[in-house]
Design a protein that fits this description.
This protein is α+β, with helices and mostly antiparallel strands and 427 residues long. It has 14 helices and twelve strands. The structure holds a DNA duplex (13 and 19 nucleotides).
DNA sequence: TCTCCGATTAGAC
DNA sequence: CTAACGGTCTAATCGGAGA
């Protein structure tokens, strides 16, 4: 192969915040440093973030909180409800800092960012400086993994996190071929991005246990038996980029708003009250990306963990005569769907709505055979503006909030230190 | 037989 | 209040329906 066609090796960094939600909480609670801390999911159900001390005690990711109660009694694990307003705000600050290091970056999740550092002189120093700056300006600890592909950058980040000797930075590209082989042979295949529990099990039947096994597996067999996703993953492990950096966030194709209830719900008006809140949330997101939806779906769930109770999980979708993003219009449909699904003999634990068939808002194309779409806008724009200014839920549609009893449990939420003056404790 | 569509599955975080 | 197990999102795949 001629060197002219050889693309230069990417120096792609994956920056990942350490124990992100716990780290956010600790910023304002120095007393929680060096003690086991966990952050719980919505409804205070499962553990979604753990401090190193909590990990050491054996608290598993996603573990139901009530299962950990023994550990609490024994070791005093401190639990907090999740506070997404706080995490989103700190995330934005971290991402802002990282974006200064390269014109090409991708915010991959609330606590992760890919940064293309290709061509950066003194890569090693810059990586440490980046980490140091995020710590200094936000107080959030991060680790940096560098590789020639996204998959290897993620793997490198894992190594940086796991080995204290790396000081929070690990560059796969700096390894010799022999060192790469040795490292990949030591890493279990489930550490690879895109290889989850099910796949790990199936790969084991093919004697693929380590990352190196996957990297060197017979490609046509892999493709035929496991599909195109794994083939791409294998290529990425072989240092051939297959997953592009997504510099611009694509608009959502589907918007879901759903929640488990704090208590079981049996009454129709309570379900409708919850659903009207979900409609308000989903529609606000829809309008924020200047889109409209053509299909509306609603669903109900009984508690699937209560084997002693009868189960019922209906779901109904309706294609709209014309797409809309008007909360009131959408709620009228959801209301009707709920009426049709509701059966009084069940106890409901969760409900939600899905907006799909999403398209950008365009000027209405006249069609003699269709009803004209009503003028969209002013009321919803005003509602969004007021809620933005005074906080979500400041202005609601009249069906919202008449009934309670469905709201999630959130018994241990921290104050919104960074986004709401009224919640900052007075010293 | 081909294509399209909805439902299901798997994964990430 | 004394039981209790998240929420969103994407892409691939599969089977059936309809052309």
């Amino acid at each position: 192969m001629s060197s002219a066609t050889q693309a230069p090796v990417q120096q792609l960094a994956l920056v990942d915040c350490n124990n992100f939600y716990v780290s956010c909480e600790r910023l304002f609670r120095p007393d929680l440093r060096n003690v086991p801390v966990v952050v719980l999911s919505n409804n205070d159900g499962c553990v979604v973030s753990r401090s190193n001390e909590a990990k050491a005690l054996g608290v598993r990711m996603g573990q139901p909180w009530f299962e950990c109660k023994a550990l609490v009694a024994e070791h005093g694990v401190f639990a907090l409800s999740s506070n997404y307003a706080l995490y989103a705000d700190l995330s934005n600050r971290v991402m802002q800092i990282l974006s200064e290091y390269s014109p090409r970056s991708e915010v991959y999740s609330i606590d992760e960012c890919f940064v293309d550092l290709t061509g950066t002189p003194n890569l090693r120093e810059v990586s440490y400086a980046m980490r140091q700056r995020v710590m200094q300006w936000t107080g959030i600890p991060v680790c940096v993994g560098i590789g020639p592909t996204k998959t290897l950058a993620k793997l490198a980040n894992h190594v940086a996190k796991k080995h204290p000797r790396s000081q929070g930075v690990f560059n796969f590209n700096a390894l010799t071929e022999a060192q790469k082989d040795k490292l990949l042979t030591q890493l279990p295949v489930e550490e690879v991005w895109g290889v989850g529990r099910k796949l790990t099990k199936r790969l084991a039947e093919y004697n693929i246990h380590t990352v190196q096994d996957l990297k060197t597996a017979h490609t046509p067999t892999l493709r035929a038996d496991f599909g195109v996703v794994i083939e791409k993953t294998q290529r990425e492990l072989q240092e051939i980029p297959c997953v592009d950096l997504q510099e611009i966030t694509p608009e959502k194709q589907q918007i879901i708003s759903s929640r488990s209830f704090g208590n079981m719900v049996t009454e129709l008006p309570v379900l409708k009250d919850a659903l009207s809140t979900f409609v308000a949330n989903a529609c606000a997101k829809l309008r924020a990306q200047n889109s409209q939806a053509a299909v509306i779906q609603a669903f109900l769930h009984t508690n699937r963990f209560r084997k002693d109770l009868p189960q019922y999980s209906p779901s109904l979708a309706v294609p709209l005569p014309y797409p809309t993003n008007d909360s009131l219009v959408i709620f009228r449909w959801v209301d009707a769907l709920c009426e049709r699904m509701y059966k009084p003999e069940y106890q409901y634990k969760k409900a939600g709505i899905v907006l799909s068939d999403i398209s950008p808002v365009t000027h209405y194309q006249g069609d003699l055979l269709e009803e004209p779409a009503p003028a969209q806008g002013t009321l919803m724009q005003t509602l969004d503006a007021l809620n933005k200014r005074f906080g979500r839920g400041a202005v609601k549609v009249s069906t919202q909030g008449a009934y309670s009893g469905w709201q999630m449990r959130q018994e241990r939420r921290s104050p919104n230190y960074t986004t709401d003056w009224t919640e900052v404790p007075v010293v």
